[in-house]
Specification:
alpha/beta; UDP-N-acetylmuramoyl-L-alanine:D-glutamate ligase; 11 helices; 36% helix; globular; Carboh/pur_kinase_PfkB_CS; kinase activity
C-alpha cells in the first residue's frame, strides 16, 4: 500500500490514441472493405493498465509521454476523467501522440498498426522527474515496451522506496535485463514473450508451471506465464496454480494481458494471497475480451460474473 496521499499504484508505460475499426473481413492485398463500426479511446498498454487499476479501486498514477498536440489533450482528458493522476505524464514538444489502429474481425481476430515514434517513449530523465510519484508508491507496474534504461530507472526508484515492482513483458537478455529481473517482485509474460524469452515452446500447463518456477530463480517472488489457448500458470516460492481460460464471448483479445497484469497488481497490493490474486487476474482478462479495444471495463459486476464462471471450471 502507498504511503500518505500518494497513489497506491504507479503505471509506467505507453500512452496512445486507440482507434478501433470493426470489419466483417480483412481486405485482400489491393482491396478495400467497409468499416462496420469505429471507436476511438484512450489506449496504449500503460494507459490500459492504469485504467484497469483505477476501475478496481486503486489510487493510480500514470507515467508516460504524449505529444504537445490535440490528441495528447484528448487522451489526458480521458485519463483524468478515469480518475488517473497524470502529473507524471510528459508533454513532448514537436512530437505527435502515439496512434494505435486495431482492425477487428467478428471472431475476435485482429491486426495492429502502431505509430509510436521514439520521441513518445520514456527516457531516464523523464522517469527521474517522476521520482516523487514512484518512491512512495505501493506498487510500480513497469511495461517493458519502453526503453530498458527508462524501465530500469523506474524499477529501481520503486524498489528504493519499498514498492512492489511488477514487470509486464520480456526484458532484453543483457545486463540491463538481468538487473530488471533482479529488481522485480512480480514478472508477467504473455505466450509469445515467454517462448521468445525462454527459447522454447510452452505447450501446456506443465510447461508453463516449470518455466515459471525456473524464472523465480532470476529474482521475482511471483511469476505469471500465459499459455496460449489454454490458461495461465502462476508460481511463487511455496505454491503454484494453473487456471484455465474462462469460456466467454470473445470480441477482442488485445486488452486481456493488460487487464490480467493490472488486476494481479491491485489484488496483491490490497493484500490478496497469490492464489486469490491469480483468480482475480484471470477473471479480469476474461471480462476484457468481451469488448472491442484494449480499454477494459472492470466496473459493476464484471469481475464477479467471471469469477463465478472460473469457479465452475476450476473450484477453489
Amino acid at each position: 500500500m502507498a504511503r500518505g496521499n500518494s497513489p497506491e499504484i504507479v503505471v509506467v508505460g505507453q500512452i496512445a490514441r486507440d482507434l478501433v475499426l470493426s470489419v466483417d473481413e480483412m481486405p485482400a492485398k489491393g482491396g478495400a472493405v467497409p468499416v462496420r463500426r469505429r471507436q476511438e479511446m484512450l489506449g496504449g498498454k500503460g494507459a490500459n493498465q492504469a485504467v484497469a487499476c483505477a476501475q478496481l479501486g486503486a489510487g493510480t498514477a500514470l507515467i508516460g509521454v504524449v505529444g504537445d498536440d490535440q490528441a495528447g489533450d484528448n487522451v489526458l482528458r480521458q485519463a483524468r476523467s478515469d480518475g488517473i493522476d497524470v502529473s507524471g505524464v510528459v508533454r513532448r514538444q514537436d512530437a505527435s501522440t502515439g496512434l494505435i489502429v486495431d482492425v477487428l474481425e467478428p471472431d475476435g481476430g485482429w491486426r495492429y498498426l502502431e505509430d509510436l515514434p521514439t520521441d513518445v517513449l520514456l527516457t531516464e530523465s523523464d522517469v527521474e522527474a517522476a521520482r516523487s510519484l514512484l518512491e512512495p508508491a505501493g506498487s510500480v507496474l513497469v511495461q517493458l515496451q519502453q526503453p530498458s534504461a527508462a524501465a530500469l530507472t523506474a524499477a529501481r526508484l520503486g524498489k528504493t522506496g519499498g514498492a512492489r515492482v511488477v514487470l509486464d513483458g520480456a526484458p532484453a537478455q543483457d545486463d540491463r535485463g538481468a538487473a530488471l529481473l533482479a529488481a522485480a517482485d512480480v514478472f508477467r509474460l504473455d505466450a509469445k514473450e515467454a517462448e521468445l524469452f525462454c527459447g522454447e515452446r510452452i505447450g501446456g500447463a506443465d510447461d508453463g508451471l516449470r518455466v515459471g518456477r525456473e524464472l523465480l530463480r532470476s529474482g521475482p517472488s511471483l511469476v505469471a506465464v500465459d499459455v496460449a489457448g489454454k490458461g495461465n500458470a502462476v508460481v511463487w516460492p511455496d505454491g503454484q496454480v494453473f487456471l484455465p481460460l474462462i469460456d466467454t464471448e470473445v470480441v477482442d483479445t488485445t486488452g486481456a494481458g493488460d487487464a490480467f497484469t493490472a488486476a494481479l497488481t491491485v489484488a496483491l497490493d490490497h493484500g490478496a494471497p497469490p492464489p486469490q490474486a491469480a483468480r482475480t487476474a484471470v477473471a479480469a482478462a476474461a471480462s476484457s475480451v468481451e469488448r472491442a479495444g484494449g480499454r477494459p471495463d472492470l466496473t459493476g459486476d464484471a469481475l464477479r460474473v467471471q469469477l463465478d464462471r472460473l469457479t465452475a471450471v476450476a473450484p477453489t
